[in-house]
């Protein structure tokens, strides 16, 4: 599976220090084109964060199936993407690879909370309103009274 991740960079004045980088994880999300990121209807904060001077990474993450949960190996996946971007020649000096933060909403907040517990390279994390557990998320998905489109991200 060939996954493509994205770094969206702010416009900075000449000689400005490289901005910190915020990672916006969403376990199982794949972003094939740049149009797949920055959708305000999906509570994607990319445009707002870039406008505030942050470099924003939107990683494509492998979907989870079987016995492993969505957080299993998530830190390894994201840190590999973070390190690959830091070593990419055209991104050198465009963001500070040592100043990292996480921003997640809903299931992305679940991913941010899992990451902050697994990796010690993040200085900050924002998780708003998270899916508290995959057990409760799966219970919601299986409930006959839940709007199936709203719970579709769980499957």
| Biggest sheet record | 5 strands, mixed
Share of helical residues: 25-40%
C-alpha end-to-end distance = 18 Å
Order of helices and strands: EEHEHEHEH
Strand content: 15-25%
Total of helices: 4
Strand order of the largest sheet: 1-3-2-4-5
Low-confidence parts: 139-155
Structural class: alpha/beta
Shape designation: globular
Question: Your description of this structure?
Answer:
The chain is α/β, with parallel strands linked by helices and 155 residues long. It is built from four helices and five strands; from the N terminus they run E-E-H-E-H-E-H-E-H. Strands 1-3-2-4-5 form a five-stranded mixed β-sheet. Strand 4, helix 3 and strand 5 form a beta-alpha-beta unit. The chain is globular, with a radius of gyration of 16 Å.
Layout of SSEs?
Blueprint (H helix, E strand, L loop, with lengths): L5 E3 L11 E4 L22 H6 L3 E4 L15 H13 L9 E11 H12 L3 E9 L3 H9 L13
Parallel strand pairs: 2-3, 2-4, 4-5
Antiparallel strand pairs: 1-3
Concise synopsis of the structure shown:
The protein is of the alpha/beta class and 155 residues long. The chain has helices spanning 46-51, 74-86, 107-118, 134-142, and strands at 6-8, 20-23, 55-58, 96-106, 122-130.
């Amino acid at each position: 599976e060939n996954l493509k991740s994205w770094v969206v960079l702010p416009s900075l004045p000449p000689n400005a220090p490289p901005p910190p980088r915020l990672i916006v994880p969403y376990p199982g999300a794949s972003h094939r084109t740049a149009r797949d990121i920055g959708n305000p209807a999906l509570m994607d904060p990319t445009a707002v964060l870039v406008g505030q001077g942050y470099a924003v990474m939107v990683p494509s993450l492998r979907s989870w199936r079987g016995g492993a949960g969505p957080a299993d190996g998530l830190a390894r996946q994201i840190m590999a993407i973070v390190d690959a971007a830091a070593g990419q020649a055209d991104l050198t000096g465009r963001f500070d690879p040592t100043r990292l933060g996480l921003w997640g909403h809903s299931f992305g907040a679940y991913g941010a909370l899992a990451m902050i517990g697994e990796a010690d390279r993040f200085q900050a994390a924002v998780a708003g309103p998270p899916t508290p557990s995959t057990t409760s998320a799966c219970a919601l998905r299986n409930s006959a009274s839940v709007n199936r489109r709203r719970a579709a991200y769980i499957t």
